[in-house]
Design goal:
Length: 301
C-alpha cells in the first residue's frame, strides 16, 4: 500500500471559501429585476392612452366631462359607438379607406416584387446607383416631400381623387418594399434558378413559379407595412383630398372637433376605437409572420 507525500518546499495553496450561493443568485437577479421594472414602467406608459381611449368611449357625456378623472365608467353605455357609426359618415369614409388601402397594397406589392427581382436577379448597368437612390429617397422625411409632391400631383390633375392618393402612398412605401423584398431574393441560391432554366422555364415562369413563392414572407411583411402606412395616414389624405365625401377614416376623426360645438370626446374616443379595431385584430393575427419576415429580411439583406 503506497502513500502520497507532499514535496518538501512546495507552496501550500489555501482553500478559497466558496461564495455563498444566495449572494450569487442575488447578483444574477439584480439586472433582471431592474430590466423588468423598466419594461413594466414603459409598458404602462404605452398602454395607458389606449386604456383611457377605451374607457372614455364607454362613458356617458356627463362622466367624460367630470373634473375628477374616473378610471372606470360608472354607467357604461354604447351610445358613443352608435352615434359615431350612424350619425356620421363613418361607412362612407370606411369605404374610401378600403379603396385607398387595397389599391396601395396592389400597386406597392406588384411594383416592389418586380423591382426587387430585377435589382437582385439581373445584372445591368446602373443597378447599384438605383439601389442607392431608392435608399436615399427612403431616408427623406415625408413632410419635406409633401408640398413638392402636392404641386406636381395638382398640375397633373391627380389631387382630389383616389388614384392620386394611392400613387402618393405607393411612392412613400415602395422604397421600403423594394429593400425588404430584395433581401429575400438575394438569399435564394442561383442554382435553383439555373435548374429551372435547364428545364426550359422562361424568365416569367421562373419568377412566378420559383422565386415569388420563396419570397412570400417578404411579400407579407411588405404588405403589412403598406397597409398600416395607408390606413393610418392623416396628413397626405387631408392635403390631397378637397371633397369631404372622399375623406378617409383618419380625416373623419377630425370632424368630431368643430369651432362651434367644441370636441365630442366620447364620440371621438368611440370613433378611434372603431378606427383602430380592424388594424389591431389584423396585427395580432399576423404579428408572428410580420416579426419573422422583418427579421429574415434584415438578416438576408
Amino acid at each position: 500500500m503506497s502513500t502520497v507525500t507532499e514535496p518538501v518546499g512546495a507552496p501550500v495553496l489555501e482553500e478559497v471559501p466558496a461564495r455563498p450561493v444566495a449572494a450569487r443568485k442575488r447578483r444574477r437577479r439584480r439586472p433582471r429585476i431592474v430590466s423588468n421594472v423598466v419594461a413594466i414602467v414603459l409598458s404602462v406608459i404605452w398602454v395607458f392612452p389606449v386604456y383611457w381611449m377605451v374607457n372614455t368611449a364607454f362613458k356617458p357625456r356627463y362622466e367624460v366631462m367630470t373634473p375628477t378623472p374616473m378610471f372606470f365608467p360608472q354607467h357604461p353605455t354604447f351610445s358613443n359607438f352608435v352615434a359615431a357609426a350612424t350619425e356620421s359618415t363613418f361607412l362612407v369614409n370606411l369605404r374610401n379607406s378600403l379603396i385607398v388601402v387595397v389599391g396601395t397594397l396592389i400597386f406597392a406589392i406588384v411594383l416592389g416584387a418586380l423591382a426587387s427581382a430585377a435589382l437582385s436577379r439581373f445584372r445591368f448597368r446602373g443597378r447599384k446607383l438605383i439601389l442607392v437612390v431608392v435608399l436615399a429617397v427612403q431616408m427623406l422625411p415625408g413632410t419635406a416631400l409633401l408640398i413638392p409632391q402636392f404641386v406636381v400631383f395638382n398640375q397633373m390633375g391627380l389631387t382630389n381623387n383616389y388614384f392620386g392618393l394611392i400613387l402618393a402612398y405607393v411612392a412613400a412605401t415602395l422604397p421600403f418594399t423594394i429593400w425588404v423584398m430584395r433581401g429575400f431574393f438575394v438569399a435564394i441560391p442561383v442554382e435553383i434558378e439555373e435548374a429551372a432554366r435547364v428545364d426550359g422555364a422562361t424568365n416569367w415562369q421562373i419568377l412566378w413559379r420559383v422565386l415569388f413563392p420563396l419570397v412570400t414572407p417578404g411579400i407579407i411583411a411588405s404588405s403589412i407595412f403598406a397597409f398600416i402606412a395607408a390606413w393610418n395616414d392623416y396628413l397626405v389624405a387631408y392635403t390631397f383630398m378637397n371633397d369631404q365625401s372622399m375623406y378617409t377614416l383618419p380625416v373623419w376623426l377630425a370632424t368630431f372637433t368643430t369651432p362651434t360645438t367644441g370636441t365630442d370626446f366620447g364620440g371621438l374616443m368611440a370613433a378611434s376605437v372603431l378606427f383602430s379595431l380592424p388594424v389591431v385584430i389584423f396585427f395580432v393575427i399576423i404579428q408572428r409572420n410580420l416579426v419573422s419576415g422583418m427579421s429574415a429580411g434584415a438578416v438576408k439583406g
